Amino acid sequence: MDKTPPIIFSRRHCAAKWRRAYGRSKSSDAASFLIDELADDVIERIGFMQLQPKTALVVGDWSDAVTNFLNGLGAQIAVGQLGDFNEELPAPSSDYDVIVHLMGLGMVNDLPGALIHARNALAKNGVFIAAFPGAGSLSALRNIALTADGDRPSPRIHPMIDSPAASALLQRAGFGRQVVDSHSLSVRYRSLEQLVSDLRDHGLTASLERGSPPFTKAGLKRAQGAFDTLRDDDGKVTETFEMLTLTAWK
């Protein structure tokens, strides 16, 4: 029986979009509300748990907020950039007191393996924290994409992980205990173009191994029409991001 994980995501496409998003993050007008939200949540958790790590690995923190906070606690920090850091390979060290991973774990083919590698990279009693958009996110965009494709829908938005699955995967990876929290973040948009731009800024555009064909002109027209039908009285469309935070102890 083949136990090789299915290849859902293209690592090449993921790496390219993460690097593009990292480059876009340096622009003053780039959207950063998701990474800011996740970083603030992680910082609050580290403070609440009163962690005093000597060593830490931080992946995906474009804002540097988590890195700066851990620096302030006196931690020696290794930094991994999404697109360069391979979650499906063993980490370069095995004695981190804290590992923080932002955004990227929702798009890993072998998530059980990635979690096992994360656990193995922790020191005794070390803490792993990962945060990323999960199942329930982008419900408006999913409906728009289905309408745009018409009678021949294509997979344009990748599958996402929900809280029960995340908790089960952490347990399967061998963590001593784990907590999975979620909260919703609603964002209001006047245009479909701005929604897509924000997703690009956060590296959340499609990266499936089997990509979908570009929208035709007719498809783009249907997409705009579907967006317009979702407008509220003020002319804006509400998109929802369901933010997952995984916390686990070795």
From TrEMBL:
Q: Which domain of life is it from?
A: Bacteria
The organism named in the record is Pontixanthobacter aestiaquae
PANTHER family in alphabetical order: ARGININE-HYDROXYLASE NDUFAF5, MITOCHONDRIAL
Stored SUPFAM superfamilies = S-adenosyl-L-methionine-dependent methyltransferases (SSF53335)
GO BP term, example: mitochondrial respiratory chain complex I assembly
Name of the protein in its database record: Methyltransferase
A GO molecular-function annotation: methyltransferase activity
**Sorted alphabetically, which InterPro entries does this protein's record hold?**
Malonyl-ACP_OMT, SAM-dependent_MTases_sf
Q: Which UniProt keywords apply?
A: Methyltransferase, Transferase
